Fold each of these.
Amino acid sequence: MLLLDSHPSGRHFLQIPGPTNVPDRVLRAIDHPTIDHRGPEFAVLTKAILAGMKKVFRTEADVVVYPSSGTGAWEAALVNTLSPGDRVLMAETGHFATQWKRIAERLGLAVEFLPGDWRHGASADQVESRLRADTAHAIKAVCIVHNETSTGVTSNIADMRAVIDRASHPALLMVDTISSLASIDYRHDEWRVDVTVAGSQKGLMLPPGLSFNAISARAINAAKTARLPRSYWDWADQLAISATGYFPYTPATNLLYGLHEALDMLLAEGLDQVFARHARLAEATRRAVRAWGLDILCANPAEYSATLTAVMMPEGHNADTLRKIVLDRFNMSLGQGLGRLSGKVFRIGHLGHFNELMLCGTLAGVEMGLELAAVPHRNGGIQAATDYLAQAVATGLARAA
Ligand SMILES: Cc1ncc(COP(=O)(O)O)c(C=O)c1O
């Protein structure tokens, strides 16, 4: 086998905010022999997966699975519901929102991009005033990235739904949950989201390669008249045979084995516990960052991401130098700064198959890296995190007693 690991002993720490560490159970499931995707066993597998995914999206609506990265599911959301020249409202929360906008523009949509500073979530107030001004209802969709992976900032989707309702505006609500699903509380039905976009490689604890759309009845209705060209991404082909457990093309069989296993793990832990674990590990991370005397990129505590923390480098220090030292010396990958944040931040991924001691190892790697890279900081980050984690466990035990 091609040897890519230059650190022969111990485990690599994959602490980028996705792809995330894949549990051994999931890897073993993926290792099963590939079966006939038109045979009887396959239908059982698909039906179980679709039922599990509905629980994770918290929806009774249709779910479509694509053998693609998340970018495919972004495109699918747009091409199934919109027509050339349609106006869509997007919010500049960071690099990924900018990428989604680029796709929309390439598809011939007219994008209104609400400006942002990459340190705050999408502003529900801005969305509301834009929708109120749109008395002709030219805006056909509002597209929001729930958790902006480039910045570690979440946007409040319940608020987005509330302002769309208050403005009595018929625009569809589309939400990218690629780095929040199965990690941060998300409710497709309750928030009446029309299309939720998701991917396999983050909270779902799988390798990259699967993407998803959860689709409301309104979105399915919009698809009937939408005129953007679509073929591979067409929901109709998939939905026509979904109930049979088969796909209109050759699905990614072995990734689906992995998804079945990952869903078992997530649902056994319980989604609320999964969200609480992510929130706890994120808080411990932020305490470490503050103890180091470094700044968190997210400027609004109410919008802190539970899946990653973007840490700002002191002036004159490059995040990529630090990341290289941490990789070379301690076999840990940290997320790079994306787009205009290149070199200015590093991102600590704390999502997916992850626990207290994995976080301690991660923070130790960062703290040692800061020392070796001569980045001005104080020690004590790990201590601040472990103090908090021990206290959180003690509180949990007391509550359970
Ligand atoms: C929030 C968000 N949206 C979209 C994408 C694009 O997904 P992919 O790289 O799987 O195509 C990513 C990837 O990290 C992401 O984090």
Note: The radius of gyration is 21 Å.
Amino acid sequence: MPELPEVETVRRGLAATITGRTIADVEVLHARPVRRHLPGRDDFETTLVGRTFAEPRRRGKYLWLPFVDGDAVLAHLGMSGQFRLEPSEVPEAPNTRIRLQFSDGEPELRFIDQRMFGGLSLSPGGAELPAEIAHIARDPFDPEFVVSDVVRRLRQKRTSVKRALLDQQLISGIGNIYADEALWRARMHYARATQTLPVARARELLRHAADVMRSALDDGGTSFDSLYVSVNGSSGYFDRTLAVYGRDGQPCPRCGTPIVREPFMNRSSYRCPRCQPARLYLR
Ligand SMILES: [Zn+2]
């Protein structure tokens, strides 16, 4: 699943290309990507026509496309969802699922999703914040993100620091990649108990998480998977500067020790055994 920088890259691309445009026609090519739109596929095709997009918004990894009428389209990118703006005469890419045409002409907006874990749905009244994602915590780029609140709640949790970083109801936007990168920058083992973290270390970890995501965003998102592309089809390249994620066996950029990969929550965690030793934190 794309993390905050990738989703923000998509949001910016959409902001520049669909804001202020009015939908003229909607074509749903496969029912599965609109399964969360409970009134059904035909309703999705008709209810959007005539509506005008306001600027797309994001919270954490979640993206929504508000309309000026106060409703919104909630966009789940899932594992492989992407948007592309293309002239309507350009042949559909494989796995094109939804096409939106605009009253001002070209280009049209296409939603492409190979694995179809993602999709689009109308969120009535969702322009400010869709009810479906109201439980998601603010992310570190949110002007109303309060570090001291998150630090306090993080230290009250009885869990490991990596689980806390991945908890979207504590802090949103961080997934496996940026959690591992932030922990490496903070020289912290992923299994360290949150209750053992001094306030200063917790603050430091959150600062690293924000910094690593900001760097990725500056680079246009991570292209660890060719399925993630920004709206014009170009991919980011931040993967070249990842320190630990996906780099097992390669030298730690700081100390040269080979990075290790360990099972974690049905996925993997990457760490430098020297910079991020287990010490007494494993329990
Ligand atoms: Zn190291």
Note: The two ends are 29 Å apart (CA to CA).
